[in-house]
Amino acid sequence: MTLSKMGARGAFYLAITLFTLFAALPFYVMLITAFKSNNELFNPNTNPFWFSQPPTFEHMNLLFTDTLFLRWMLNSLIVGVLVVLITLALTIPAAYSLARLAGGWGEVVGIGIFLTYLVPPTLLFLPFVKVIAALGLQNSLWSLVVAYPTFTVPFCTWLLMGFFKGIPRDIEEQAMVDGYNRWGAFRKAVLPLAVPGILTVVVFAFTLSTSEFVYALTFVQDSAQKTISIGVVTEMVRGDVFRWGPLLGGALIASIPVAILYTFFIDQFVAGLTAVAGD
Amino acid sequence: MTTEVSEPNSVRFRPQTGPSQASLAVWMLAPAILFIVLLIGFPLGLAVYYSLSNVTTGGSQVTLVGFDHFRNLIGDPTFRGALGNTFLFTFGSLVIMLILATIQAELLIRPFRGKWLVRFLILLPWTAPAALAVIGWLWMFDSVFSPIDWLLRQLGLLGQPGAPLGVLPNLYWLGHPTLAFVSVILVNVWRMLPLATVIVLAGLNSIPPELFEQARVDRAGYFRRLFQITLPLLSPILLVAILFAFVFTFSDMIVIYILTRGGPANSTQVLSSLAFFTGIAGGNLGRGAAIALFLFPVLAGVSALLLAMIRRSEVA
To answer: Taking CB atoms and an 8 Å limit, are B32 and A91 in contact across chains?
Structure first.
């Protein structure tokens, strides 16, 4: 290896390290802070990046016994699963219809549906308050189950449409020659091949709903009905007093499973976004 | 996405009993369309109606007030400030994000040891739920215990006589108008960067490697390759990154709500956070809806423009 090559290699690793630090440092500090005793935590002269006193589980105890943390996790799980089911029920038939049955206008309608994904929650949440009130769902998890498919359905329909287009038509045609009708061919021949696409939709509908903030903040005030995203952020602050230990610990614990799930599928997410340029 | 293989138009399947193809298409599509019309289209219409009325969160009486909200908003310095802040916040974030994303993607496309871990860590700001990720920064910027300030003090840059960043022990990141604005942009860039990077990476991966081989044979230097091959071929995908980062940033209120609540003295207030505080905290749904509606023409206009540019650059 020549000297200039070694220099380039060193610069490469330095750059990678800096980018990784930039991305991960806040999470690292969350981890350390969650296990620091309060008298160390609230001393501006101690090293915030490491322990100067032995780690403690006091914040974790507080988080799991003295707050509704587990309840919020459960609420997020319930909302996430219901949103996934609604999303699948609405998007699988719609996407198949657009990919195969609709003919020329399928593409146009598909792009139209995708474009509604660009209508942000911050534009809709105010009128939604009255819609939720009219449905009698204020302050309840159910308001979120109704609202969240507004961003999962447009995106997931688009994503599944791409998947269905990738499945050769011969598959259904053969099934139909074998005596299935169109619906039967769809169920028996196409759906099994679309499992990777359906799994992607499951992961997105779930991670997008567990991450949502604006609707949850607006519709739900009752502590026991909150999801993890707003529970941790709004309930760990008493007046002006932040309970930093449990707050950061709770945020980290709730983030990691969602982040891991999302990381496996982010390439499909991006493929869905970039497909809008490709067709 | 792969382009579809052109297929013969002849419909080969036999006519089946049961619903015809066209009506089956409609039936399968109807629930999704109905849902979108009822829960996106209808509220959007309602937002327009509310912006023209004096509706509040509590009351049930609604009277139309015409364009009063819009007229009042134009004269309101808080609103005008928020409008300007929204553009500055979005534009500042986009420029920094694009530069960093291009560099980061160039790095990540190379193979190296432990790449899976680096990838997971670099993606964290986007893959972790937004509110939970941003709350870590509230601690990083704490007025007394900020870890960033601690680091600056250790380096002698802060908190001692003659220190370049001042003699006070803290910078008060979120307490000073300019610094607060820098902070929210920094955190927004931090959050959007992984998404932009993965989009750019997808673009880099789609460039045929032979092009670079040929350029290397022709002894084109790194910057020549960057500006004459990589960036031109990347432009459609960079536009896609701009489109989504723009939409997500322009309409976002999570970063602002958690870090500054629009403060100090509305210096970081953006349209969406102002709409929230006016409509929900203040209870004035009509005025809040009018503020949020200002997002719409810009979102629609810029998105349409970017989509048109994306499609044109695809053809070229």
So the answer is: yes
